[in-house]
Input
Amino acid sequence: MTDRIDTDNIYVDEDENFVAVRVNTRIYKMHAIMNAADEFLEESNFVIDGDPEKEIIVKFVPKRRLNRTQLEEVANRFCTLLVSFSSTR
Output
């Protein structure tokens, strides 16, 4: 299928129980990234790193073991929140 959406901005490591999302800072501002990540405080630990002028990487480490599908869901929820926080603030 040639109509696939490029999801190379999401990296899932089921063995190590984490998911990382690369965020384009030309599209999403730091306040939106931080607000979206804040929604995961109770369920995940996370690290935010990168160059705010180019790209930020947000790594989520869930507080309980998740399977690949659940880790992908964390990334997808985060991406959805990015859009929400970018459009409302």
In short: The mean pLDDT is 92. DSSP finds two helices and four strands in the chain.
